[in-house]
Structures are given as C-alpha cells and as structure tokens.
Amino acid sequence: MKRFLCGSIVVSLFASAPAAAALVGSWTVGSGANSSFVQIEFGNGNAYLYDVRYDGAQTGRGLFDTIAAAQPGFFAFEVITFSFGDALFGISIGGDTNSGFGNPPLYLDYWHYWTRGAGDPSWTESFVGFGDRTVSNGSWDGWVFDSANAPSAVPAPGALAIVALGLAARRRR
Predict the structure, then answer these.
(1) pTM for this one?
(2) 70-118, pLDDT tens digit by residue?
(3) CA angle centred on 61, ends 34 and 50, rounded to 5°
(4) Among 57, 58, 134, 141, which one is most buried in terms of CB atoms within 10 A?
(5) Which CATH number do you get for residue 65?
(6) Is the C-alpha dihedral spanning 44, 156, 119, 153 positive or negative?
(7) SS3 for 68-115, per residue?
(8) Which residues are registered as beta bridge partners of 79?
(9) Which residues on neighbouring strands pair with residue 137, listed in sequence order?
(10) Domain that holds residue 15
(11) Residue 121: enclosing H or E segment and its boundaries?
C-alpha cells in the first residue's frame, strides 16, 4: 500500500509490487514555461516530488537552488566542491535528512543520482554531476539514499490532484 499526501488529504493506493518509498509530499515551485521533476527518496523510505518551473537553460543543481529558494527552512542541501566538480553530500526536507559519501561495508550511504528524459519510462544512472547536467522540459532527476535501486514509481503530479478531487466529492455525498 502506498500513502500519498495531497494537501491535507492522505490517499492510500494499492500497488501490485511492494513500494520501496512512500510519497509523503509533492510541490510545484518556481515559475516559467518549462517544467522538470525532482524525486528524492530518503533511506527511511520517505519520498518527495517537486515539479520545478523555469525559463531558459537549467541544470540539476539549478533545480535544487529553485526548490531551496521556494522552501527556506524546510528544504536544504549540502554540496562539497572538489576539483572535478560539485558532489551532493546531504539533503534535508522537513524532518527527513540523510548525508554521506559511502561508508563500509556496503558503501551505499550516499545520494545516488538517476535521470530520465521526458516520456522515458526507465531511469538511468547519471554519469555526470548535477551541476553539469542540463535538464530539459519534462525531464526527471531522481535521488535515492542508501540504495543502488532506481527511484520508485510515483504517480504523475496531476494524478494526485485527480484522486484528491475524487475523495472530496465522495465526502460531500
């Protein structure tokens, strides 16, 4: 069973496969004609989805900057700069927080970066850092902590609104 938070309504949906992460928050931030999605999954199984709006060229890092500007005190991230570029060290959203660069024995406790293009059904591990990745309208960036698995399937942001409207209509009966 997956639980989704849409406004103040919690929606439970049954899935045929067990969920690796539960979507607990979804927001639209920024402004502009283009839209890219950022999906973040913490080690505790909580997932968050952002629909980031922008104009012009944008990077994966720029998406994070837009989210942080829209949610100060709620969304924060830490980057460590190396000679080869920036590395994402930690993310905090509300009460969820994870950070690390991979420690023994499994070396999985770090933020794994996944991408997919608009309309692509499958995630691909990114071979560039988020500061070097140029996103495009409809693209997805996925971040998973403490797992080598691709991000979990989540409903499209519009699907959450439709489910919430259906529940609201049922309550009125």
Answers:
(1) 0.79
(2) 999 999 999 999 998 899 999 999 999 999 999 999 999 999 999 999 9
(3) 55
(4) 141
(5) 2.170.130.30
(6) positive
(7) HHHCCCCEEEEEEEECCEEEEEEEEECCEEEECECCCCCCCCEEEEEE
(8) 88
(9) none
(10) 2-172
(11) none
